[in-house]
């Protein structure tokens, strides 16, 4: 799940810096977006819609997010935060890296399939955000917890490797959504990890 940024590339305040009232407001806005996107196309959702649905005023909305897009990306980032925490727990526990990558990937796919309209707005460009860029940030973060093996050739070209994988992930997910989330998340996660050759060593031939 991607890192939250608004249309100017800025990130909203970290959730850890928010007080309880601010957290409640953001949770209400996240929930409002989830409900409204089931009723309206993303492009038609306005700040007024969201404020009314969340039971707040427009000025309160603007104290948290500059745009609807920023709210969407922050909502998606919530899933990414939980994915990152899962990756860290699995990394700290040791064990098979490939199995851990499949578990983390399956977690992400299950979140996407649970909120398809939310993620479609991100993937199809409706939110004005480059999904490949966001996936690059996500993969870089994931690899900080579950890195390539030390002797893996991709470590010598990490930026290029992550860039290539980001484009592949974006395309994979878009087609997976268009085909009705088939195969199921668990099988799709294993397929994606295998296709990207994650958890295995790439050496010079």
From TrEMBL:
Residues 23-83 form the HTH tetR-type domain. The keyword Transcription regulation applies. It holds the Pfam family TetR_N. Residues 1-23 are annotated as: Disordered. Signal peptide: none annotated. Residues 46-65 bind DNA. One of its GO terms (molecular function) is transcription cis-regulatory region binding. Keywords: DNA-binding, Transcription, Transcription regulation. PANTHER family: HTH-TYPE TRANSCRIPTIONAL REGULATOR BETI, HTH-TYPE TRANSCRIPTIONAL REGULATOR RUTR. This is HTH-type transcriptional repressor FabR. It comes from Sphingomonas mucosissima. The lineage of its organism: Bacteria, Pseudomonadati, Pseudomonadota, Alphaproteobacteria, Sphingomonadales. The gene is fabR.
